[in-house]
Amino acid sequence: MRSLQKKIKNEIYALLKDKYDFKQTELSFSQPAERKFGDLSTTLAFALAKKTKSKPFLVAEDMAARLTGQLKAVEDIRVAGGGFLNLYLRRDNFLKYQWQNLEKPLPAKGEKVIVEHTSINPNKSAHIGHLRNSCLGDILARSCRFLGYEVEVQNYIDDTGIQIADVVWGLLHYQKKSLDEIKKISNLAAYLWDLYAEVNQLFAANDDLARQRRDVHKKIEEKIDPEYESCRYIAEEVLLDHIRTMEQIGIHYDLLARESDVIALDFFKAAAAEMTARNVMTRSADPAKKDCLVIHYDRENIEKIIVRSNDTITYVGKDIAYNLWKFNLLPRDFCYRIFHTYADGHAIYMTQSEPAPPAPPFGRGDKVYNVIDVRQSYLQNLIAQVLAQLGHSAPSANFIHFSYEMVALTPACVREMNLKLEAGEENKPYIEVSGRKGRAVKADELIAKLVEKSLCEIQVRNPALAAAEALPLARTIAVAALRYFMVKFNLNTVIAFDFKEALNFEGDSGPYLQYTMVRLNSILKKSSGADLRAASVPGSLQCLEAREKELYWEMILNLSLLELAVEFALQNHELSSLAAYAYGLCQKFNHYYHLFPVLAEKDADVRNLRLSLMLIFKNKVEKLLAVMGIAIPDRM
RNA sequence: GCACCCGUAGCUCAAUGGAUAGAGCAGCUGACUUCUAAUCAGCAGGCUGCAGGUUCGAGUCCUGCCGGGUGCGCCA
User: Fold this and answer.
1) C-beta within 7 A of nucleic chain B, residues 340-379 of A
2) Could you check: is the Cβ of residue A181 within 7 Å of any atom of nucleic acid strand B?
3) Would you identify the CATH topology of the domain A2-89?
4) Which site in A20, A126, A298, A522 is 20 to 30 Å from A118, CA atoms measured?
5) Structure confidence by residue, pLDDT tens digits, A493-514
């Protein structure tokens, strides 16, 4: 549809440019609200009427007169609604064109996109908030790949921060465990979940303990054992746990970038040199920030500390250096080693400071997406500002904070999990998730619940199915439910999490999409080879009765929008539109399915045409679901 | 205080400035001897927070109010 629209635009522009004064970019098409308004609609007449000070309807009428019969792919042109110009395509030609272009992959863009997502502190299990991040990041990466970009997925590991010192203190000094004892703890990440919440309560109540924690943090930074080696062990164990959690739902990474390596390899020094030379980073004149190096954040007129008075670097400072590296703007690089290999053979690399054999060329992105929740907007904007101030205008424009709202818990959900509410929280619309307070739904726990529910549903429908067969199906369905749930909301919608909604497998849900495809595949499985061969040459829509013809055409038209739909989602930062698109297609399919049987149809022409639709639907929607990371089970 | 986001059906959410504001859930009526009922068809449910403005056209843009959320650390 994309190339067809372009062709039609070219034709229209050539035919109208002498009569009307406009640029070709002003001509855009949208999908009409209703079938009767045609297949492509443009509001060009409204804009041109303003310029020529005439009535939109008259302009549209004149345009229609000039265009009628002149556009190759267009059967009819009509004016409606006071100035809409509605185009009606030549359906049989369009159907043939769709069919011929079904298998053509999109051409490579020749640009590299780096997507950073997940980036969970390696000090406890992942929770639902992290799942939103990872699902969005993964679908973003898949969308870019689908459109022909080279994509590299990075996961930033803060293995030096104070939050990991929290649990190191908790294990070594509070619980008095040795490293050997720590190594014996099974499911360490989940164990630390509780410990992290517990020690944070202690720190809040006791300044002396909070000071002890700072000492631990210092020892980690200065590589003093046992704090340092325990920290290394914990970070790696918990990281493996996160990777396992995400692997369950089909999320893979290419590179794990460690903060400790950003520090060890002096990335910041290189960045600081440039920022100082360009006067972007300066010594603060504020007595309260004596001896600090700061950057002025113009948008909100704030002075942000980058280097503390004790010469240590703040989080943003390190992030600036890391992001400069992503664009290949630092005279520094990491060393790399393989950290983990997935079942499909794909390797995740991890950065390291020690020299290592050559690795793939990481970084060097043309475009960078940072999937980080909206609460870090100001820091992300600051980084974009710094890039611009350093003279990197293209990277600054291609530095994209892929911002989304947080996941919170409904008060009902908090009660359901027997978690404590603080004073005044009872009346809040939602409760912020907090690892520090141990108040969140663990990712693994939610996934387990989804699998359990899928399994129940499968067993009800397929009582004879062996558990060994049912479990993989249940996992596939659980993943679809979770991913769909995480992507169906707008990015700036706070998800107030509720088990009942997340566990919904009916209607607007991932399993609904899967069920649609299972039905479709079942038809194809039962079709004869002769029928399938015949269907590969789509016939004419003329053999269908009116009602079916309209529905059929509507589906073909909608299916043809796949590439445009993914492009739209990416451009507008609305991955939820992919979910809506998929859901709408499947609704139409199910509607059609109930009205028009394929296998039982006696008329061979009609049967073949229906089967053609099945094949086109399968091709397009499988690709769409793959972009969303939703697999199609053999049965449900 | 300053900055950003949100307010749409009972609930949870959709809706490129475009044509009659749509879905799911919950409720009610129907449809399995049929290509899988995790489905489908139908009913009911709305002054899109309030008041102005811009526009051929506003849920969407602008201004002001009201209500809610988040950010503004020498935390990360």
Assistant:
1) 374-379
2) no
3) Gyrase A; domain 2 (3.30.1360)
4) A298
5) 999 999 999 999 999 999 999 9
